[in-house]
Automatic annotation (TrEMBL):
Essential cofactor(s): Zn(2+)
Species for this entry: Litoreibacter janthinus
Family in the record: Belongs to the metallo-dependent hydrolases superfamily. Adenosine and AMP deaminases family.
Listed name of the protein: Adenosine deaminase
Domain Adenosine deaminase as annotated: residue spans: 4-319
GO MF terms, alphabetically ordered: deaminase activity; hydrolase activity, acting on carbon-nitrogen (but not peptide) bonds, in cyclic amidines; metal ion binding
SUPFAM superfamilies reported for this sequence: Metallo-dependent hydrolases
InterPro entries registered for this protein in UniProt: A_deaminase_dom (IPR001365), Ado/ade_deaminase (IPR006330), Metal_Hydrolase (IPR032466)
Keywords, sorted A to Z: Hydrolase, Metal-binding, Zinc
Keyword Zinc applies: yes
Repeat recorded as keyword: no
Record Pfam families: A_deaminase (PF00962)
Amino acid sequence: MTIPKIELHLHIEGAAPPAFIRGLAQEKGVNLTGVFNEDGSYKFEDFSQFLRVYEAACTVLTGPEEFGRLTTAVLEQSIEQGVIYTEAFLSPDFCGGGDVGAWREYMHAMQEAAAKLPEIEMRGIVTCIRHFGPDKAKAAARCAAETAGDFITGFGMGGDEMQGKQGDFAYSFHMAREAGLRLTTHAGEWGGADSVRQAVRDLEVERIGHGVQAIDDDALVDHLAEHEIVLEVCPGSNVALGVYSDWHSHPIETLRERGVLVTVSTDDPPFFHTNLGMEYDLLGHHFGWEDDTVREVNVTAAKAAFCDDATREKLLKALEPAS
Ligand SMILES: [Zn+2]
C-alpha cells in the first residue's frame, strides 16, 4: 500500500503541467518557442533558464478562468502522486496585480476548481514576492487578510532571497497574523543560515520554506528542533538549482536525525523534472527511507498543515497504518 502524501510547498504556476500550458498557448495563439524540449517537458538547465521558461509559460495564465483551469490540472497531477492534501502558494501579484477585488475573483475560481476534486484537499497560502519590495508585499498581505477563511489559511513570501531582509516585510506578516493567517517564508535556500535566523526572529513564522542551509549553524539547528519550527524541504528543487551539488550532500536526513521537523515537497515540480513520488523514491535510495520514515514525515506535515482541526484529524486518520 502506498502511503498518502501531504504537500506543503508548491507554487501554483510552478506546478503547471507542460501539456496544460502548451494547450492553453495553442488556444490563445501564443508562440512559446524555446520553452519545451522535444519530449514535451520544460527546458531546464540552470536557474536563469528556469526563470525565463517560467515567465514565458506564465504569459498564457491571463485571468481567473485560466487560474481555475490551472488549479484543476495541478491538483489532478498531485492526485496521481497520491497526494491527499496540498497547500499552494498563490500570488496576488500574478492574480490581479495586488488589487483586492480582482484577487477575490482569481481566488474564487481556484477555490471552486479545488472543491470539484474530492480526492484532494487544497488550501491557499497568499504569497508576496520578496524582490517586488515591501510596498507590493503590503498589497498582497491586504489581499490575504481580506480573503482569510476556509480556503486562504496562510501568508508567506517567495522570490529572490538575496534582495532585502526578512524584517523589511514584518508589517505585512503582522497584518496577516492579525487576520488569523498562519505564517511561512522562504529562507535558507540561498540566503544562508542567517536568513533562517532572521525569519524566525523578525517574522515569527512557524514554518520555513526550504530552511536547509540552517545546517551550517549548530545553535540554529537546535533552536529549530526545540521550538518545533517545521521545514518545507524540497530536495529535488535544491539539487536541480544547485543549492546542493547532488542528493548525497543534501542535509535533509542530517536535519531529521538532529530532531528538526522536516517535510517533503516539490516546489515547481515539472520545471525541475520531478514529482512527489520521485522525491520519496530518491530519499529511499540515498538515505534509506522506508515506509515508517515516509509515514512519520507525512504525519509531521499533517500536524503542521495550515488547516482546521477536523481536516487535520481526517489527514492523520488516513496516515494511520492499516492494522
Ligand atoms: Zn518555493
